[in-house]
Amino acid sequence: MNFIKNFFNKYRLFLSKYEKKFINQNSNFLKFSQKRKTIIFIINYDYYFLLLYKNLINEKKLFKDYNIVGVWAANVYPNKHRNFYIYNLKLILNIIYDIFIFFKCKKIFSSIGFSKFYHYNFSYPFKKKSKILNDKLNFQNINELIQFKFENIWLGDLIHDTFVKFTSSPTVDLKHPSLKKITKKSISTLDFIKKLDSELNFIKLISPYSSYLSFGALVRYSLMNKKEVFTCGSMFSYFKKIPLNRPLHSENSLNFKSMFENLKNKEEKIKLSRKEMDEKFSGKKVISNQYIAVNTYDKKFYKYDDDRLKQLDGVVFLHDYFDASHDQENLIFNNFYDWSEYTFNLIRNEKLNIGVKTHPNSVYDSKKAEESFKKKYPDLIWIDSKVSNLNIFKKKNIKFGVSVNGSVLYELPYFNKLGISCGTNPTSAFDFNLNPKNLDEYKYFLKNAHKENFKKIDITEVYKMYYAYCMMNKDDINLVSRDLSLLSFKSKINYDDHSLIELDKLITEKIIN
Dihedral angle at the C-alpha atoms of 23, 24, 27, 29, nearest 10 degrees? Predict the structure, then answer.
């Protein structure tokens, strides 16, 4: 009996006592009305977005004028198996689990005003399917895949990132049987969305993210059909309006410099930014690290060092290979894995004094990819993820760090080290880093950035960038969630049912008062 109980507790198949309490605390059960216009929310099993949605619906009183409808964010299931029998067994188990969680979440979201729910895979089982020839789904290279469109809606980057995440493959294998399945799923997802729109004629979409097929396909369809779209999963904002020309939930960092220059009291903002950056690197919890599970600037990490750092000119800071690489634009490489492989070969062939630091918060499969690289490139200097970045930044011999678009790119210049990027990143609008536009520039920077006075860093510009990215209120819908710093609870709230109740009470009280 204990085994069964532990199984259900681990996989959270049924409502916990605190989830039941949340339902009772809200109890805003509504019926769908044909007379009202409809807003669609993409929902998942995530307390942070549940509370954000509750805040939006109640503070803006959406339930008075609109039907609140939920679309369940699951259309592709994680499955890395190639064997037909194992693949289908895993698929069946995933579907069963998904159905349990879907029906559980229907009960939770119904309590905050949702009146209808739809599932990508099970609603409209007899919908008309678009026809596409198989040879149209055979891609010659990854670039061709990424550019794939169907009915003028760009899906290729979403297919790419979905394949990487859900097959646990750090890059795309064009011959993998799941690639064609996922591509077909992107088309059937559009069929579902068209059917949904013909039934509801929804006017607005709210989504946590715009990445992967589970979020991005509906976001892009909505934008193409002139519906308002908001996302709430960007790093330091709560709700942002998404434009058609940039259907990404990430911050548009190319605007950061002009945003800051248009502010009043700029000198005061620079002082605030400097103070916060000082606190961040002293190990304190600040805005820019509030979402991180492990604070690598905490003093307990100072003890981890590596004597080999003294022989380096620069350090490559690896990404988690299964993050959505296309959350940002203007990438020089197709994904984080291909970037790593090219960079490692360049270091080896050119005999560059550049070390490689593994990612501190990588998922299990990403760590496996790192271990595979270590075996393939044993001659490189591999720096353990436990080594504090501070110990790297404080080495006078180290002149630069390398990342595709990670936060380390704005941390390095604080210590007078250059950041070298491979795509749009928070520093792109400023001139204190090395942001190459192509592969040749990237190669040149890696070979030459260690030279004395290669580029001068204006620390004031770093403070401006930090304020614009991390501290400035860029919300397009203002809510009490910002006043309560709800974002600071994001990394831990899903593992703490009790905090769900406490935060729910705080939001309700703040709205009333």
Answer: 60
Rounded to an integer, what distance in angstroms lies between the CA atom of residue 172 and that of residue 160? 7
For 235-310, where are the E strands, in sequence order? 240-241
Task: Tell me the C-alpha to C-alpha distance, in Å, between residue 183 and each of 99, 206, 207.
Answer: 23, 24, 22
CB-CB contact of 195 with 40 (8 Å): no
**Cβ atoms 284, 488 nearer than 8 A:** no
Structure token pair of residue 86:
């194992």
Three-class DSSP category at 38: strand
| Rounded-to-integer distance, Cα 433 and Cα 420, Å | 6
SS3 for 478?
coil
Whether 40 and 205 have beta carbons less than 8 Å apart is answered as yes
Q: How distant, in Å, are the alpha carbons of 1, 51, 394, 487 from that of 483?
A: 45, 14, 36, 10
Q: How far apart are CA 376 and CA 355, in angstroms?
A: 15
Q: Which of 287, 294, 288 is nearest to 485 (CA)?
A: 287
Q: Render pLDDT for 108-167 as a digit per residue (tens, 0 to 9).
A: 999 999 999 999 999 988 777 777 766 678 899 999 999 999 999 999 999 999 999 999
Cα of 283 vs its chain's centroid, Å? 24
Q: How many CB atoms lie within 10 A of CB 94?
A: 16
Domain residue extents for the chain: 50-249, 255-471
Q: How far is CA 96 from CA 77, 89, 103, 120, 193, in A?
A: 11, 11, 11, 15, 23
Residue partners of 315: CB distance under 8 A and separation at least 6: 309, 354, 355, 356, 357, 383, 392, 398, 400, 401, 402
Closest CA to 291 of 65, 487, 500: 487
Residue 140 tokens read as 């010659």
**291 burial via Cβ count (<10 Å: 0-12, 13-18, 19+):** middle
pLDDT reported for residue 496: 81
Token pair belonging to 126: 């007899």
Determine phi and psi for 91, rounding to 5 degrees. -60, -45
Nearest Cα to Cα of residue 129 among 177, 178, 202, 189 = 189
Q: Looking up tokens 């560059």, which residue turns up?
A: 352
Q: Please check whether residue 416 is in contact with residue 457, taking contact to mean a CB–CB distance below 8 angstroms.
A: yes
Between CA 58 and CA 64 the distance in angstroms is: 10
Least confident segment among 28-32, 161-165, 435-439, 467-471: 28-32
Give the SS3 label for residue 333: coil
Structure tokens at 9: 């507790």
Task: State the CATH architecture for 255-471.
Answer: 3-Layer(aba) Sandwich (3.40)
Task: End-to-end CA distance of the chain: give it in Å, rounded.
Answer: 47
Separation between Cα atoms, residue 19 and residue 3, nearest integer Å = 22
Q: Look at the chain and count its residues.
A: 513
Kindly write down the DSSP assignment for every residue of 144-179, as one continuous string. Answer: HHHT-EETTEE-HHHHHHHHHHHTT-SS--TT-HHH
